[in-house]
Design goal:
Elements (H helix, E strand, L loop, with lengths): L15 H5 L16 H4 L5 H17 L5 H14 L7 H19 L2 H15 L11 H12 L11 H21 L8 H24 L4 H21 L4 H17 L9 H12 L22 H9 L11 H10 E3 L1 H7 L4 E5 L10 H17 L21 H14 L4 E3 L3 E5 L3 H8 L2 H12 L17 H16 L9 H18 L3 H5 L3 H11 L3 H18 L2 H15 L5 H19 E2 L3 H15 L3 H9 L3 H8 L6 H23 L6 H21 L3 E2 L16 H18 L4 H18 L20 H25 L4 H13 L1 H4 L7 H23 L6 H10 L7 H6 L20 H14 E2 L15 E2 L1 H11 L13 H44 L12 H28 L5 H19 L15 H17 L4 H17 L3 H8 L1 H11 L7 H10 L1 H18 L3 H14 L9 H13 L1 H13 L6 H20 L6 H17 L3 H19 L3 H13 L3 H22 L6 H18 L1
Parallel strand pairs: 2-4
Antiparallel strand pairs: 1-2, 3-4, 5-6, 7-8
Helix pairs in contact: 3-4, 3-5, 4-5, 4-6, 5-8, 7-8, 8-10, 9-10, 9-11, 10-11, 10-12, 12-14, 13-16, 16-18, 17-18, 17-20, 18-21, 19-20, 19-21, 20-21, 20-23, 21-24, 24-25, 24-26, 25-26, 25-30, 26-30, 26-31, 27-28, 30-31, 30-37, 31-33, 32-33, 32-34, 33-34, 33-37, 35-37, 35-38, 35-42, 37-42, ...
Subcellular location: Nucleus
Organism: Fistulifera solaris (Oleaginous diatom)
Main location: nucleus
């Protein structure tokens, strides 16, 4: 019968003996035979060992067969087995020995066992000597010594045998100690015996301590455990235990183990000494020297540092005994917290003072970290400031030393660990110790940043392998964060204490590295902040932000400004808490005051104002209230009592604009109905804060006079913004949903954003006078003032007349975005985004308002303004195109479309420089070939005569080779510098134009029921054609720049190209035409015809496939704009020349992708336009490849399931395809007969096309092609025999079967005759009705032919009816 499970722990644990040897009396179980139990004690299975020990004790003491003889044998067997190294024999027999001695003492059978032992020993001796009966303690000790002493047989002993006896004695002493035999009773005689026996055991352990180096820690641990039995007894019931431990320490431990000086102590001796001092309260007398003074103190730690650092040889996660003793010395058990949490862990709190020496625990720990961990383990020399970031004292720290340091930090951080003295332990240190000791900057950098960041971009070597301790360091870091967050949501834990622990971790880590998460690629900081945000803790966030503010102001750290910015972004994620929003706005105000104001005189001004107001008031109570009434802005200014350096102000300025931009964008993307008011409130806050700061005495770093007027009118910037904002609020109060109110709100938003751009963080005090990108504050201010005046003019016109000139507003928006304000700077952050979003809002509001009024359309002037903003000037468009109609892409200038005016001059300069400079022709002087320059004196003469005309008239210049070369180089450098300047200017202009695409893209995003109705069809086509031309020029410029080498504006050109392509594909060509019309419907057809000519001309100049596809989309878009079918068919006529040019012109640029794209976009129109021409090209193209491509395209057109947008156009497309069948089949026949087309890759395409044609003819019957089909069958059979390709053979067989099926089906004429025969069988009355219907259909067709638009669908129906009528007459 299986035994019930036992509670098994470590064999040396206090509870393991009782758990393993619990007796089960309720059930009768099958016991193991007595002798077999000793084999079970050696098992590696703890459950089997416990069952064996239980059976043995049951047999010896408690069972019906209990007898002293077997008990004596069991004791001898257990003691002898302690020296066995087989499996788990030592652990199992030691645990069984503990239980054996406990039961023997409880049953008082040890005396009988002693007698039986003496009897059995006398039987084995020839001359037995009967010794007197001794006490149980002495008897057990004698038996242990006899069993663990090596036999004196004189033979040479093995090392393993010697080790087994040593460990056997160690385990035996620990088993006896755990059994409780050494605890005294109340009699004085018993106490003396206990002291004597215990002193013997301690002497035995000291001998083991001195035996071998690897026995020191184990022996020291046994001494500590032996002393613990008396320490625990003295705290509970045994009063004599203190006297016993006093004598043991004084008479045995100190003289035999601790007699050396403190500097000579090993780590094990320190463990015993510190352990005794940890329990000084359990001693009745003063500790003897050297234990009367603190062994472990601030003063002695430097002396002990070497011995403690040598314990790194013990591999983690276990630490040396001395560290477990140190934790018990510095902490005490918190029984209240242990009982509260209901855990078996030993939760320990730091003591107020150390047990000996009465020193602060935090001071001792700081000394421990400084001298042991920092200097000895990590090798950091703190005394030398030049080496505080990692210079080693005695070489590089080893992995073992770092691992020990990590274990120390782990334990101090409150992570659970297993102590050899107290079991599972948690050190619940104070937040101060956590911040200043466990996570000081040196430890964080060396143990986490340098370890976790090794092998990544933050590592020192960049590409080195990962640190071997990275998993352990990452685990410790995760444990620390989990420990700090473990108390969240626990009602029994103090929230303030939990917050302080999280804050201490954040402060300790961030003071070392403000970008800790990015340096280590972890989420340590963000995890804590996100958790505190989800379970929003107001007090935590207030304390955290205050800490960041103090670091910014005290250390002038720009990194902590970034942390405040990240904190604000994290707070903004919590949309439910009003406190989070207030804290985020507080950070915004802090950035504003820090970056743009000097608050050093605020506190003095505030005190003077308070004193002045206090003198005027006689009531003292009022005086005290004046001191208390300080606004939050004034408190903020008083905290900023020192002017920060430029780098901090610059970063704060950038983060201010970025945070303000994010708040604006988040408000604009909200789903609320009052989001315009919300945006206006957000943007009005900085203006209010600026006024309050100036009222309390803060001075702007770059002062602007609010009372001064702008250049145009006598209005200050503040007055303009206030005027517009007040007007917007009035409109919103009247009707917030009206487009008028929304447009007024948009103007107020733009004015507020422009006002914020007046703020400046000043100049760099260090680099005064040097070139700086942000040194153009005066020019920026003038632009802002000019834009504010423009906004005011728009507002006044709108307020008085109720309308807005869209053209002028488009120009104003374009100027704002393309100005230097839209480019930003290093101190402006996301100000371009802020400004661009404000302009977008205004532009959207004005378009919405214009569409709501009705009757207005976007004028040509407004469209031209938008196009000029992105670099398209339609006034010079035709002049630019005249030169490049038939030129290749290489004809473009090297500097693009923006420096055409300087093309001639640059080319002449480059030609002159190329003529003047030439490398030496001598191939032997390779080393000097790069530096030597040969100059043509005659050409240099002419060049100098041009530049120095006044000085060289009538004289011949004398030349010197070195001077000529230097002058030529100087001229070349001047030309290169000028070209570089032009390219930089072009790059800047391109970046501004990219931003202006926002306005055009917004305009084209209008819906039919919105501002999409403001556009006309011809305006859309004009925009499309202008964008196509610009797209082509950009592509040529990019290709030219790529061919000639590096170009600084290449990335901007590519970005502009991508933006133009996106506008065409995603906006313009997808524009819904249902809500717009032509500006002049009468001239629509003529305009469309002219535009088609221009588009096909643009197609012929296309530099690549992408542009051809855009041209294809533009042509399809043009056909959508034409209402009549006849107009579309007129445009389709141009495809004949396009296909002919593609098939026959060798220098043409057209590609088959153009036709692919057309077929994909409008398949029916492609059938109408391309089928007949492609059929001709398949037979007459200039190369086999083009013929193959023509067949492939024909295969795409011969698809009976092509999607048709209009039924009429689809029927016409099918008719065109059917009409071209003869030509197509003739082309197929000629392809089979063409030798060049008989190649496998060519003929395969022909066969595929033929297969699709046959499927099409099967679905849509037409006239008979019997002769052509028979000829095809013969050609296919020949190809089947001659081809070696199995694929071609199978295709030929399939096509032949399709031809037979097609020939078996009736043709269109045959099917018509069948129908006529059925109709003739009808009676004459039906014929009369058909004649009447015929006459009616003739009249209807005549009316339809006279219609204005000439609907082709109706014509086709009337013609088909006429044919039916004639056939019926026949």
């Amino acid at each position: 019968m299986k035994r019930p499970p036992q509670h098994d722990k470590e064999d040396t644990d206090n509870n393991s003996d009782d758990g393993e040897l619990m007796l089960v009396e309720e059930e009768k179980i099958e016991q193991v035979p007595f002798l077999d139990t000793f084999y079970g004690l050696s098992s590696i299975d703890p459950q089997e060992r416990a069952e064996a020990a239980q059976d043995m004790i049951q047999h010896c003491f408690l069972g019906p067969q209990a007898n002293t003889k077997d008990a004596a044998y069991a004791l001898k067997r257990l003691l002898n087995a302690l020296c066995s190294g087989r499996a788990a024999a030592r652990q199992g027999n030691a645990s069984a020995l503990v239980a054996f001695l406990k039961v023997a003492q409880e049953t008082n059978t040890l005396q009988d066992i002693q007698k039986e032992t003496k009897v059995s020993q006398s039987k084995q001796q020839e001359n037995p000597v009967v010794d007197a009966i001794v006490s149980d303690r002495i008897f057990v000790r004698n038996q242990l010594l006899a069993a663990t002493t090596e036999p004196g047989d004189g033979r040479k002993k093995k090392g393993s045998e010697e080790r087994d006896y040593v460990f056997g004695r160690l385990f035996g002493i620990l088993a006896i100690q755990k059994s409780g035999m050494l605890l005294p009773s109340n009699s004085s005689d018993d106490m003396e015996e206990v002291v004597t026996v215990s002193k013997h055991y301690i002497s035995d352990l000291i001998q083991l301590f001195q035996f071998k180096k690897w026995m020191k820690e184990s022996a020291a641990h046994a001494i500590c455990m032996l002393l613990n039995s008396y320490y625990y007894a003295s705290e509970e019931i045994l009063s004599d235990a203190k006297a016993i431990v006093d004598r043991l320490v004084r008479e045995s431990i100190v003289p035999e183990l601790l007699s050396t000086t403190l500097s000579e102590f090993s780590a094990e001796q320190l463990a015993v000494a510190i352990h005794i001092q940890s329990h000084v309260h359990c001693h009745s007398q003063k500790l003897p020297a050297p234990l009367e003074e603190a062994v472990f103190s601030v003063e002695t730690i430097p002396t002990l540092a070497f011995a403690l650092s040598e314990t790194s040889a013990v591999t983690q996660p276990r630490t040396h005994l001395v560290w477990d003793v140190i934790w018990t010395f510095l902490t005490e058990t918190s029984r209240e917290e242990t009982s509260t949490k209901g855990s078996s862990n030993d939760v320990r709190l730091p003591r107020d003072v150390t047990p000996v020496g009465s020193e602060s625990v935090e001071d001792v720990l700081m000394a421990l970290i400084q001298f042991v961990v920092t200097q000895r383990l990590l090798g950091i020399m703190l005394d030398d400031e030049a080496k505080q970031h990692g210079e080693s004292v005695a070489g590089k720290a080893t992995h073992e030393r770092r691992a020990l340091a990590l274990c120390i930090v782990r334990n101090l951080s409150g992570v659970e660990f297993v102590s050899s003295l107290t079991g599972r332990t948690v050190l619940n240190m104070t937040p101060s110790i956590m911040e200043n000791v466990a996570l000081n900057s040196n430890l964080v950098r060396r143990l986490f940043i340098d370890v976790i960041g090794a092998g990544t971009a933050t590592g020192r070597k960049g590409k080195q392998a990962e640190h071997i301790l990275k998993p352990f360091a990452t685990q410790v870091l995760e444990f620390i964060v989990a420990r700090a967050l473990s108390d969240l949501g626990n009602d029994k834990v103090d929230v303030v204490g939990s917050n302080e622990m999280c804050l201490s971790i954040l402060r300790g880590i961030l003071r070392c590295d403000a970008h800790f998460d990015s340096s280590t690629k972890t989420r340590t900081i963000s995890a804590i902040l996100e958790t505190k945000t989800k379970q929003f803790d107001e007090q935590f966030w207030i304390s955290y932000i205050q800490f960041l503010e103090r670091e910014v102001l005290a250390n002038h750290s720009a990194h902590f400004v970034d942390l405040m910015y990240q904190a604000a972004k994290t707070l903004d994620k919590n949309t439910e808490s009003a406190t989070a929003a207030d804290l985020s706005k507080g950070i915004l105000n802090f950035f504003l005051a820090l970056a743009f104001f000097d608050c050093s005189s605020v506190e003095t001004a505030a005190e003077e104002s308070v004193q002045t107001s206090g003198k005027k008031k006689k009531n003292k109570k009022k005086k005290s209230s004046n001191h208390a009434e300080i606004s939050p802005i004034q408190q903020l200014a008083m905290r900023l009592n020192t002017k920060q350096p430029y780098n901090v102000r610059s970063v704060a300025s950038a983060r201010f604009f970025s945070l303000l931009s994010e708040l604006q964008i988040r408000a604009s993307q909200s789903q609320g109905t009052n989001k315009d008011q919300e945006i206006l409130t957000i943007l009005a806050s900085p203006r209010t804060v600026c006024l309050e700061l100036q009222l309390v005495g803060a001075k702007p770093l770059v002062a602007w006079d609010e009372s001064s007027a702008t250049e145009k009118e006598d209005y200050s910037p503040l007055e303009i913004v206030s005027l517009i904002c007040d007007g917007a609020k009035k409109h919103l109060d009247v009707d917030p949903s009206s487009t008028k109110a929304r447009f007024g709100c948009g103007l107020a938003i733009l004015a507020s954003v422009l006002y914020v751009h007046l703020l400046s963080c000043g100049e760099d005090e260090v680099s005064m006078g040097e070139d700086d990108l942000d040194a153009d504050d005066d020019e920026d201010r003038e632009e802002v003032l000019s834009f504010l005046s423009d906004v005011r003019e728009v507002y006044e016109t709108f307020s008085s007349e109720g309308t807005v000139d869209i053209s002028s507003l488009a120009g104003m928006c374009t100027n704002i975005i393309s100005s230097p304000l839209g480019a930003g700077g290093r101190s402006r952050g996301a100000s371009p985004t802020l400004l661009r979003e404000a302009v977008r809002i205004v532009w959207t509001k004005v378009l919405t308002h214009a569409s709501s009024i009705g009757g207005n359309v976007i004028s040509t002037e407004a469209v031209d303004t938008l196009l000029v903003g992105i670099g398209i000037d339609r006034s010079d468009e035709h002049a630019q195109e005249d030169d490049g109609d038939e030129e290749s892409g290489d004809s473009e200038d090297e500097n693009g479309v923006f420096v055409e005016a300087t093309e001639v001059e640059d080319d002449e300069d480059s030609e002159n420089s190329d003529d003047l400079l030439s490398k030496p022709s001598n191939g032997n002087d390779d080393d000097d070939s790069e530096n030597d320059v040969e100059v043509d004196p005659s050409k240099l003469q002419s060049l100098l005569e041009q530049e120095l005309e006044d000085d060289s008239v009538g004289e011949e210049l004398e030349h010197h080779e070195g001077a000529d070369a230097a002058l030529a180089k100087l001229i070349q450098l001047k030309q290169e510098a000028r070209k570089a300047g032009l390219k930089a200017k072009e790059r800047l202009e391109l970046s501004r134009q990219i931003k202006c695409t926002l306005l055009l893209e917004t305009l084209l995003s209008g819906k039919p029921d919105g501002w999409g109705c403001l556009l006309t069809t011809d305006a859309l086509l004009d925009i499309a054609f202008a964008l196509l031309q610009y797209h082509r020029r950009l592509e040529k410029a990019i290709k030219s720049s790529s061919d000639k080498g590096s170009d600084i504006s290449l990335s901007e050109r590519k970005a502009m190209l991508a933006r133009i392509t996106s506008i065409l594909k995603n906006k313009l060509f997808k524009f819904k035409l249902s809500s717009i019309s032509w500006s002049s419907p009468e001239a629509a057809q003529v305009y469309a015809e002219n535009m088609s000519v221009s588009l096909f001309q643009e197609l012929r100049q296309s530099p690549d496939k992408e542009h051809q596809q855009l041209c294809s989309s533009a042509i399809v878009f043009l056909t959508r704009c034409i209402d009549s079918l006849d107009g579309r068919l007129e445009i389709a006529k141009h495809f004949a020349a396009v296909v002919d040019e593609w098939a026959h012109r060798r220098t043409g640029k057209l590609d088959a992708s153009f036709f692919d794209h057309l077929i994909h976009q409008n398949p029916s129109y492609a059938q109408v336009s391309l089928t007949q021409e492609l059929a001709k090209a398949a037979a007459t193209a200039r190369s086999a490849f083009l013929k193959s491509e023509a067949f492939r395209l024909l295969g795409l057109l011969h698809n009976p399931k092509l999607s048709t947008g209009q039924k009429e156009l689809g029927e016409l497309g099918d008719a065109r395809v059917v009409a071209a069948n003869d030509t197509v089949i003739d082309a197929v026949i000629s392809a089979f007969e063409d030798p060049e087309m008989k190649k496998a890759k060519r003929i395969r395409e022909v066969i595929k096309t033929l297969e699709k044609i046959l499927v099409f003819l099967s679905a849509k019957p037409s006239a008979s092609h019997e002769k052509q089909l028979d000829q095809l069958v013969e050609l296919l059979k020949q190809s089947l025999k001659s081809s070696e390709s199995k694929g071609i053979q199978s295709s030929c067989e399939k096509v032949i079967s399709l031809i037979h099926e097609l020939k078996s089906k009736p043709t269109s004429s045959e099917s018509m005759e069948v129908e006529n025969g059925n109709e003739d069988a009808k009676d004459d009355s039906n014929n009369d009705h058909m004649q009447v219907d015929e006459a009616k259909s003739d009249d209807e067709s005549a009316d339809e032919n006279e219609s204005s638009h000439g609907d082709g669908k109706k014509k086709k129906k009337s013609k088909s009816k006429k044919k039916k009528g004639k056939s019926k007459k026949k």
